[in-house]
Class I SAM-dependent methyltransferase
Amino acid sequence: MLDYDKEAERYDASRGGEPRAAAAAEAVLGFVPPDTRSLLDVACGTGIVTRRIAAARAGMRVTGVDLAPAMARQAATRLPGAVVLADSRRLPFRDEQFDVVSSVWLLHLAAGPADARAIVGECARVLRPGGVYVTTVDKAASHNVGSDIDVVLASRPPSPIRDRAADVESYAAGHGLVQAGQACFTGHGQGRSPRRTVADLRRGWFVTLPPGDPLAEGFATRLTELPDQDRPRPDPVFSLRAFRKAG
């Protein structure tokens, strides 16, 4: 897994920057009721999405939480006094504290099913009855856009999938959350080029292909043989699920 403290400085620029953040924030806001007074953004990262959510709703108090100190420091510059350093499996908030909880690009990073279930459970715990939980699902599948790069990488060892939609729906149901909708948004600026994909391979982006591993270098060689080395292929389209807490 990538070291998100090391990634913090380049995170926004390497992942679509403001256009992608705007698309993500708009999609999340589509599930935020107009009378929402408080929202918790779990794994807020650099705060680039969180800031847009906060700016869109006057009078809504937005709090961000992240585990990586460097990411949280960047978020704090965008949301002064509103960012907490904490583990999403053990949120430092009281029960039923927030009207809405979001977790964008988080569950796929869970170490295993138990951790993913724990994260969903914590998000449900701090959500008031009638409140809404919004999360991304199936992130890895979103990046498979049917390009020539995907064809080359199709035979790589598969990564464990921690955010499969059906699993997340099951975790949510186990914590009193009922399905409330779904949406998609485009990851603007995240379309891969062959050259960029080789660079990602060599810095550990693909968890089953460690940098320097002969298998990783074999994929890198095949990628360098593709045409249009610097032309980005289509952007990924990410999936959101929304759930409402019973009560």
